[in-house]
Amino acid sequence: MNLKNFTSQKQLKTDPLAEASNSELPPKAPVLSPAEWLKANLFSNTFNSVLTILSTAAILLIIRGLLSFIFNPLRQWSATATNMRLLMTQAYPEHQYARIWVSLGFLLFLTGVSLAFWRAGRSVLLSQVGKRLLAIGSFIVLVTLLAPFSSEATIIWLIVGVFIAGTGFLLKSSREDKTTSSMTLLSGAFLLAILSLWVIPYGHHSYISTRTPKILAEPGTVAMTTKLPWTIMLVVAICSYFLGSLIRDKIDEAKGKALLSTTWLISPLFLLFLVLRDPDFDTGHLFSTDIPIFLFFSIVGSVILLWLTNPDIGEKGRVISTAILFVGFATFLFQMLMIVRILTLVLAFFALAAPTFSGQKPARIRYTKVWIGTMVILCWLITAINTPSTAKVPGDFFIGGFAITLMIFFFTMVLAFPLGVLLALARTSKFPIFRMVSTTFIEFIRGVPLITILIFFSVMVPLFLPDGMDLTEIAAVTIAFIIFEAAYLAENVRGGLQSVTRGQHEAAEAVGMTNAQKTFFIVLPQALRVAIPPMVGQIIATFKETGLLAIIGIFDFLYIARSVIPGQTEFMGSTRENLLFVSLVYLVICFSMSKASQRVEKRVGLGER
Amino acid sequence: MTSKFVKLLAVALAIGVVAAACGSDEEEAPAAAPATTAAAVATTAQVEMVADGSLLDTVQARGTLHCGVSGSAVAFSETQADGSVTGFDADYCRAVAAAVLGDANAVKFTSLTASERFTAVQSGDVDVLIRNTTWTQSRDTDVGMDFGPTTYYDGQQLMGRASDGFTANSGAADLEGAVVCTNAGTTTEKNVSEYASLAGVNITLKTFETSDEYWQGFIDGACDISTTDGSALVGRKVKQQPADEEWVIFPATPISKEPLGPTYGQNDSKWADAVNWTVYATIIADEYGVDQSNVDSAVKEGELGRLLGGDGELQTTMGLSADAFHQVIKQVGNYSDIYNRNLNPVGLYREGSANAGWKDGGLIYAPPAR
Question: What is the DSSP string of B109-153?
């Protein structure tokens, strides 16, 4: 506030000669004693002093109120603890629960390897960590003294606060240049949290239907079913990080990163349909129909595409691709499997796009590989969807709670992003028809509240479907989310597209790029870089918007906390506890996403170049 | 120029293809419909073909009963911490499964909100809806539902604090100026305003999205009166009344009639008979004092013999197995078993209520098995 005057005073005291010799370096901020800092930042004049005192009092009162709410003996925290499984996965069968852990473990493994490959860790000054810990510890001590705890709780929290502050104090006085990796700190924090499962008696909560009262709350550690798997999860995460750092140096890093990105994109499809859904495959049908169709299309398609990407093929190629498209149409006139029609049409699109990707042999082979990959995913999806799940649960979907919130969020982001980019390209296109369709779509969707679209898709759309076609409510609302978010993402991307200067377009044209090449290799990469901040905002908003699912009665995280748990005889009136837990989870996730995006922005040099 | 034209044509054709894919009949692989992976998220190929027959045949062929419940109604259908569904309504779902399929556990529960419950029956997502649904004229006629026998006679009542001067004999006249809280968008809201305006008193109505929220309002003192079905009032009083307060429920005669029971799609007598007689069987067994514990050893003659024992001719003509109702009583229990197991813990007892048997002055009555 009044820092400027203060620094100038400081500078007067310093030796003018020393000042001159240091003129090459940027000026260093003066080191202030705590009293000086307080005066400069908090009590610089009467008005600021009053403001400081009033806002400190307000903050302390709010914290005191919150703490006395949380630690009130009337609070039914056992409602949240007992129903943790319900909150996370709704009614996933207990004897199949290993599937949940396998999925989580796989994702943690991917996280660990990815963190290593992208060198996410950075070195942190130990003294800096010490300062933070000291601040946190002192804050806990201060709050404990203010909060209306029982004397026993006060002592426990005081000890915790003093311990943290003491650790911080020791670290603070360590050598100036001593550093540690932020990854070490992160795994340390996780290690402490998971070790506490083994040591601290959080209380054992379980539901046993044959007992009265049904809820068992007894002192002891958390059930074995929770602490052991979590410990394994921690080990997996740490080991995969070290494994990642080892192989990072052995193989081509760019290739490894590409492989990891692809795995991130497609693994949820396999985790969901193969691991979590526990599909009941019909082996006979698989070998007699599904696999032969897959092989036929990948082999024949590869041959056709290899030939079509030949740069010398000319007009002949276009005629053939159009012919394949007509064959795709014709399949709808005859009785045949739906999968054959879909794959023929996809082949037609690949054939039509082939000239854009024509070139030397490696480029052509790469294009063929993309085709085979698409076949794998499409055939797998179509087969998996038509296979019934054997996970028998109450409810109309095999998983619920936080898992369904995450699932819908993931599919929305993965599918809304390409759709949004396409819409943005269409809206800036030269062809009036594309422009009109895209603008109408975007403006219409943006003009309607999300909840209206959700209700429309969950209630009305199933009534419009032709006979024999069945869209579950989950799929319907996922589509609703996708089109809504795509419209918003499209506008973000359009902003990015407009920031790419005319010169870039002209330069691309000057080196002989086609329109598609110019868009995909020159314009889009620059546009998306600029669009990162608004897009991350949109992603975070989407995650929070999944809470609207509770209104249309899908058993998501919020619905279970707000309606299902208070509907249990034992836990009537526990809404506020559950809502507080849910908001904490949302807060942690949204905050982490925001932090991650800031790092990405730094990495691509946004706002610096 | 030509190449651009071809590209444009290709894209136009592609749009046509997608439209065609969406509009065409799906003969062989229904769920694989439009190639969008979006649709792929959770579409399952469930073809529910009721080929002119009764739902009873469909359910027996499928081997599982699809039952619609609330999933968050205290004592009626609760979703427990392990995901299982328990409660009075849930037990009647199990009873129907025991009668129709011989296995009380062959039930797939679908939790439905109040607004989606009837659509779920009409679209065939659930075979029977046992979700504390009140039998009303418009639902029976206009909405296109048929109602089974009432399993629970409920009625809307009000609850206030004794310290505010309310007693069990209070009536509409005592409500002048009171803040009345209830669920948003339910008939309780309409009933209580009608009740107050008929008596000519002014009340302030406050509505909340979920029942737990307006109870919180009542406990915190933001509401003078809380109103909903009597069964829920009793449950809340038993579970949530603070030690230093006295909550009273009034008036003695409820201000509305809420007969709750199973509901199903209309014009399917065979299915309706199976559901109705499952309920009647639990009531008849209760009249004879035959319950879960003694059903195997009880002497079965006369009406009991026709219902539970012997060659079960009455049951086989309905399309059920001969021992269908024996299985109901054995696996789930008679009316008293179901009632006491689920409703006693929340302070609801049959004695002296409308849900006592007809011989004890209640309304629970079944036609004879003959």
Answer: EEE--TTTHHHHHHTTS-SEE-SS-B--HHHHHTS-EEE---SEE
A207 contact B CB<8A: yes
The structural domains of chain A, with segments of one domain joined by +, span 3-44, 75-92+398-609, 93-253, 281-387
Query: Is residue B92 located within the same domain as residue B141?
Result: yes
Tell whether B145 and B161 lie within a shared domain.
no
Candidate from A335, A431, A471 with C-beta closest to B8: A431
* B186 occurs within a structural domain: yes
Q: Tell me the shortest Cα–Cα distance from B108 to chain A, in angstroms.
A: 6
In a shared domain, residues B317 and B351 = yes
Instruction: Say which DSSP state A563 is in.
Output: I
Domain total in chain B: 3
* Judgement on whether residues B89 and B42 belong to the same structural domain of the protein: no
- A85, A215, A325: residue with CB nearest B13: A325
Burial class (CB in 10 A: 0-12, 13-18, 19+), B361: exposed
Residue A20, pLDDT above cutoff 80: no
| Separation between Cα atoms, residue A555 and residue A112, nearest integer Å | 31
Alpha helices by DSSP H, A354-401: 361-385
At A443, which amino acid appears? E
Instruction: State the count of interchain CB pairs (< 8 A) between A and B.
Output: 230
**Residue in B closest to A389 by C-alpha:** B44
**Shortest Cα–Cα distance, A512 to chain B (Å):** 16
Alpha-carbon dihedral B336, B342, B345, B351, rounded to 10 degrees: -30
Task: Name the residue of chain A whose CA is nearest to B345's CA.
Answer: A569
Q: What ipTM goes with this model?
A: 0.80
Query: Per-residue confidence of chain B (370 residues) as pLDDT tens digits?
Result: 334 433 443 444 344 333 333 333 333 333 333 333 333 333 333 334 444 589 999 999 989 999 999 888 888 998 888 778 889 999 999 999 999 999 998 998 888 888 788 888 888 889 999 998 889 898 999 888 999 999 999 999 999 999 988 888 888 888 888 999 998 877 788 889 999 999 899 999 998 888 888 888 898 888 999 999 898 898 888 888 888 889 999 888 899 999 999 999 999 999 999 999 999 999 999 999 999 999 888 888 888 888 887 778 889 999 999 999 999 999 999 999 999 999 998 889 999 889 999 999 999 999 999 8
Pick the last residue of a domain from B222, B238, B255. B255
For residue B114, is it within any domain?
A: yes
| Strand ranges in chain B using DSSP code E only, listed in sequence order | 65-69, 72-73, 77-79, 85-86, 107-111, 128-129, 145-147, 152-154, 156-161, 179-183, 204-208, 225-229, 247-250, 258-260, 263-265
Domain boundary residue, one of B239, B255, B271? B255
The structural architecture, per CATH, of the domain A75-92+398-609 is Orthogonal Bundle (1.10)
Fill in the amino acid letter for B102. Answer: G
pLDDT in tens, A388-414: 777 766 656 778 889 999 999 999 998
Helix (H, G, I), strand (E, B) or coil at B268: coil
Residues in chain B closer than 8 A to A467 (CB atoms) = 25
Domain enclosing residue B185, as ranges:
156-255
Cβ-contact B132, B266 below 8 angstroms: no
Rounded Cα gap, residues A569 and A566, in angstroms:
8
What single letter denotes the amino acid at residue A584? L
Helices and strands in chain B, H and E counts: 13, 15
* DSSP run (H or E) holding B192: helix B187-199
Q: Are residues B119 and B82 in the same domain?
A: yes
- Which residues from A are below 8 Å from B71, CB to CB? 394-395, 555, 564, 567
Of B10, B24, B219, the CB nearest to A352: B10
**What pLDDT score does A53 carry?**
92
Amino acid at site A238: I
Of residues B23 and A162, more confidence is placed in A162
